[in-house]
């Protein structure tokens, strides 16, 4: 853990900021210093959505990060602030060119309901 889901409106699929956003999210998550690289999963998914008044130029990006429990409120707040700052900065050129709604949320998953089978730590760095 953590896992990130990025949804975006199809009208921005070819924008350069979106093409590098997944890596930017990963880099920001690692920069927090609280997430293990072997636990990162980042999904990027185009969605057919209606944004605002329905104008075809309206763009949308939603980033949701789910993390395991056990970190203090301050640690989570600092991580969320850093991730939002980095990702917002990454997307600013896109927002400067047209309408963009960007939302970010970080959710904690109770460990009692989080099951895993993961041997990636044995391979990370060997591949």
UniProtKB/TrEMBL annotation:
Keywords for this protein: Isomerase
Q: Which domain of life is it from?
A: Bacteria
Molecular function per GO: isomerase activity
**Which InterPro entries does the protein's record reference?**
5-COMe_2-OHmuconate_Isoase, Tautomerase/MIF_sf
Quote the Pfam families the UniProt record gives.
Answer: CHMI
UniProt key word Isomerase: yes
Q: What is this protein called?
A: 5-carboxymethyl-2-hydroxymuconate isomerase
């Amino acid at each position: 853990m953590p896992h990130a889901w990025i949804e975006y409106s199809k009208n921005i699929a070819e924008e350069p900021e979106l093409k590098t956003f997944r890596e930017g999210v990963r880099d920001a998550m690692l920069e927090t210093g609280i997430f293990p690289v072997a636990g990162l999963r980042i999904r990027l998914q185009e969605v057919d959505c209606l944004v605002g008044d329905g104008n075809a130029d309206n763009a949308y990006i939603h980033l949701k990060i789910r993390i395991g429990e056990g970190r203090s409120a301050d640690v989570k707040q600092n991580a969320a602030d850093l991730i939002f700052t980095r990702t917002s900065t990454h997307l600013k050129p896109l927002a400067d060119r047209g309408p963009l709604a960007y939302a970010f949320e970080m959710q904690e998953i109770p460990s009692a309901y989080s099951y895993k089978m993961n041997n990636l730590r044995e391979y990370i760095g060997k591949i």
